[in-house]
Specification:
The complex is a heterodimer of chains A (about 180) and B (about 200). In chain A, about 15% of the residues lie in helices and about 25% in strands. Chain A contains 3 helices and 7 strands. In chain A, the strands form 2 sheets. Chain A has a 5-stranded mixed sheet with strand order 1-2-5-4-3. Chain A has a two-stranded parallel sheet with strand order 6-7. Chain B has about 200 residues and is α/β, with parallel strands linked by helices. In chain B, about 35% of the residues lie in helices and about 10% in strands. In chain B, strands 2-1-3-4-5 form a 5-stranded parallel sheet. In chain B, strand 4, helix 5 and strand 5 form a beta-alpha-beta unit. Chain B is globular, with a radius of gyration of 19 Å. Chain B starts with 12 loop residues before the first helix and ends in a 29-residue tail after the last helix. Classes of the chains: A alpha/beta (about 180), B alpha/beta (about 200). Chains A and B meet through loops of A and loops of B.
C-alpha cells in the first residue's frame, strides 16, 4: 500500500491503493479510522493500458467529525477486465446506488451486492432496454455515424472556417472511418 | 388502469360554423391567454424563469406561467436537455394537455440535442417525441429570444383557422393515448413498520 498525500485548496486528500482482494477490508478500516461519510464510488476505464489493464474502482470518503477542515480519503483498486469486485454495501448501504450505476455504466459485477430489496444489480439511470456499457472507452457513440448533422462536427470542418491544422479527433467513442462518413 | 374515453378532440359547433370575424376573435382570445407549462430540464429553464420575472415579464404578452399542471396548460415550453429516459415523460405530459396545444422547443438541446448530440442517452431533439411549433435557438437563448418565440407563436395562432376537422388532422393523428391512459393510479403509502428504505 502506498499513501501519498496531496493538498488541494488546503484540504488534504489521502490516497490509498489497495489490491482488489483487500477492497472491503480497506474501506472498513477507513470507516473505522473516522472516514464515516460515503461520498461517491465510480470506476475509470483503464482497459487500454499496457501494464495490468482493468477497471479502476475509486471510492471517496470524508471524515465529518472535523467540519472546518474535512479529512478526505480516496481508495482505489484495479479490477482486471471480466472479474468481479466484492461489494461494499455491507459497509456503506448508500454505496448501493453507486455500485448499480458503476455496474450499468462499466459492466462491472459486484459480489455480495445487497441493497435490502433482494433485486440485485439492476439498471439505475439508463433507459429501459438500453444495451451496452456507455462509459467504457470501447463504447462507440453510434449517433456520430448515424445522425445526419448539418455543418462541421469538429473545428475546421465547416465551410465558414479555415482548416485548423489540428489533428482529427481520435477520442474514445468516436467511430472508426469504416463506420462511414462522419 | 381503465382509461376514461374522452372522445375525439373537437372545437364545438360555434367555432366550426363561426364567420370569419368571430374566428378572429376566438384566435385573439387564444393567442393572448397562453397558460404555459414549463418543462424545465436543464439550465435553459433558468432563462425561462428569467423571462417570466419582472424584467422581461412575459405575462404582458398574455403568457401565464401559473398552470397547475399540463391538464390546464395550452403551451408547453421544453427547456433543457431531453434524455431518452425522460422522453416518455415528456410524451406523457404532452398527451395530457387539452387541444389545441402548442409546444415551444427552447434551446439547442431540446431543438437538436445541442452539445450532447452524440451522447448515448440524449434525445436528438424533442421533435422526435412530440410535434414542435416554434424552435428558439441558443445555448441557452436569452430571455428576449423566448419573447420573440412567443410572438412568433402568437402570429401563428392568429393565422390558423381551427375547425374540428383541422384540429383532428393536427392532433388526433399522433395522439397516442387517451387522458385516462396517461393517468396513474393513486399510490397508497406503505405501512410504516414495513419500510426499511426508500426504493427508487
Amino acid at each position: 500500500m502506498t499513501e501519498p498525500a496531496a493538498a488541494t485548496d488546503g484540504v488534504v486528500i489521502k490516497r490509498l491503493e489497495v489490491d482488489a482482494a483487500d477492497w472491503v477490508d480497506a474501506v472498513t478500516e477507513a470507516r473505522g479510522a473516522g472516514f464515516s461519510f460515503f461520498d461517491w464510488l465510480t470506476a475509470v476505464d483503464q482497459t487500454d493500458l499496457e501494464e495490468s489493464p482493468g477497471l479502476d474502482v475509486v471510492c471517496h470518503l470524508l471524515d465529518p467529525s472535523t467540519p472546518k477542515a474535512l479529512r478526505r480519503i480516496m481508495i482505489r483498486t484495479r479490477v482486471p477486465d471480466g472479474e468481479s469486485l466484492a461489494s461494499i454495501t455491507g459497509v456503506f448501504r448508500g454505496a448501493a446506488w453507486h455500485e448499480r450505476e458503476t455496474h450499468e455504466m462499466f459492466g462491472l459485477e459486484f459480489d455480495g451486492f445487497d441493497d435490502g430489496t433482494g433485486l440485485g444489480l439492476r439498471p439505475l439511470l439508463l433507459p429501459d432496454g438500453f444495451e451496452g456499457t456507455p462509459l467504457r472507452k470501447s463504447f462507440v457513440l453510434a449517433a456520430r455515424a448515424s445522425k445526419p448533422w448539418p455543418g462541421g462536427k469538429e473545428p475546421g470542418e465547416s465551410e465558414h472556417t479555415k482548416p485548423t491544422g489540428r489533428r482529427r479527433v481520435s477520442a474514445p467513442g468516436v467511430p472508426d472511418p469504416e463506420w462511414g462518413p462522419r | 388502469m381503465a382509461g376514461v374515453e374522452l372522445g375525439m378532440p373537437r372545437m364545438g359547433a360555434a367555432a366550426d360554423l363561426a364567420p370569419q370575424p368571430v374566428k378572429v376573435v376566438l384566435n385573439w382570445g387564444r393567442r393572448y391567454s397562453l397558460w404555459v407549462f414549463n418543462f424545465g430540464l436543464a439550465c435553459c429553464a433558468i432563462e425561462f424563469i428569467a423571462a417570466s420575472m419582472a424584467r422581461h415579464d412575459f405575462i404582458r404578452l398574455g403568457v401565464i406561467p401559473f398552470a397547475p399542471g399540463p391538464r390546464q396548460a395550452d403551451l408547453m415550453v421544453v427547456s433543457g436537455t431531453v434524455t431518452d429516459k425522460m422522453a416518455p415523460a415528456v410524451r406523457r405530459l404532452y398527451d395530457q394537455m387539452p387541444e389545441p396545444k402548442y409546444v415551444i422547443s427552447f434551446g439547442a438541446c431540446s431543438n437538436t440535442g445541442g452539445p450532447y448530440w452524440d451522447s448515448y442517452c440524449v434525445t436528438k431533439g424533442v421533435d422526435t417525441v412530440i410535434p414542435v411549433d416554434v424552435y428558439v435557438p441558443g445555448c441557452p437563448p436569452r430571455p428576449e429570444s423566448l419573447l420573440q418565440g412567443i410572438i412568433r407563436l402568437q402570429e401563428k395562432i392568429a393565422q390558423e383557422s381551427l375547425s374540428t376537422k383541422v384540429i383532428r388532422a393536427k392532433y388526433a393523428g399522433h395522439r397516442t393515448a387517451t387522458a385516462g391512459e396517461v393517468t396513474r393510479g393513486l399510490v397508497t403509502p406503505p405501512a410504516a413498520d414495513t419500510v426499511t428504505r426508500a426504493e427508487p
